[in-house]
Amino acid sequence: MGLYGLIFGSFFGVVGTRVPRGESIVTPPSHCLTCGHKLTPFELIPVLSWFLQKGRCRRCGTHVSIFYPIVEVMTGILFCITWMQMGLVPEFFISIFASSVFIVLSIIDYESYRLPNIIVMPSTLALLLARFFIHPLGFFSYISGALIGFLLIYAIIIFSKGGMGFGDAKLFLFVGFYVGFSQTIFTLVLASLLGALMGVLFMIMGRLQKRAVIPFGPFIGLSAIVVHLYGTPFITWYMKLIILH
């Protein structure tokens, strides 16, 4: 499963970097962005090629960002964790699909501060259709999760006067269909916490100015994945804690 993740991660890197530039994800084939050198199969081996070439183009010597092998490794690890946590049940394929979408959107949001409709909307529709057949929490939970997620973010956008983007609201439609009602709310809380902590950390490190924009998509995606894999036990524990007090 990890090998599949590495291969898909390589593809996600291509999609995530080409879509913001308005380029096709099919043509031209993978190439050096500096000299146009068409990459050979040897140069397209996930992770390994980057290290064998010492992070440089074989023709012109231009530095190739370590961003690509990082995405490949993280995707491989995520696929393995999902398989170990869930097994090959129907929900596993939902999780892999959603995680793949989050990875691509996180790359795009990080590079361009955009969550393009061309990916968000078809993915949301596909997930909605899948939920007609695979709905372990009950179909209504996913519908209500999508609605509450969208409305909460939309309300934040209105009251914060642009503190968040409308793309985040649309992404929460996808999140709701992915994790269901209660876990959608938990995803928003966790994503907000992670985003705030990262913002404070960057400010301490001097890498972020006050009022600077931080892409929220990666935090939404990470939080949704974590909540989907581990959220149910935590929510159960938290509800019991509230009842006991």
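The record above closes out task 2.4. Task 2.5 opens with a second protein, given below.
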Amino acid sequence: MVIKIWHGSEKIIKKPMYNEGKIHNDYGKGFYCTESKELAKEWACKEIGKDGFANCYEFDTDGLKILDLSDDKYNVLNWLAILAFNRNFKTSLSVAREAKKYLINNFGINTDDYDIIKGYRADDSYFAFARAFVNNQISVDELERAMKLGKLGEQIVLKSPKAFERIKYVEYEIAENQKYYHRRLERNKKAEDDFTELLINADIKGLHIIDIMRKEEENSD
């Protein structure tokens, strides 16, 4: 199936290159895209006063091995375990350090064999939800609800040389900074406000990471 995907950037990228990019992104090195042009334009405007670009591509997914974290066989802890493995978690509390290791060991997924990963995008505002969970501040149910706040959207990440062979540049659209930088700020502000409310009304009776570790729950449970 051929789909249209977008990559928000400060520059025009006609030929995405395999094995480039930051190693500590959500899913490690890869080319991060979305099917939403509007989200791509927000992601392209990280700094005030400078327009960005929404690069458009056609992408043929036929025959590619896809890890779709929205599939029913996966849960939010699988996503969080991958995030914990790839991103820098500053864990000052002992429970958070143990939680990070526990998630990776018991809910982690080996992503090396996949050509594409589809899943949540954890920008800074949403990364706070992940930290709150490993710090034992919110429950699993609250984490799942939090990840839907602000309509964050899914990202599609190209991981393998085979995937990079399938992507074809089409065009670009300018992301007007005056419009999309402020939209990005509004989205983040909404997420932060919702998160604050979530912490104030946190359910102490819900299933927290400390409960999961004590029960020695695993991905199959």
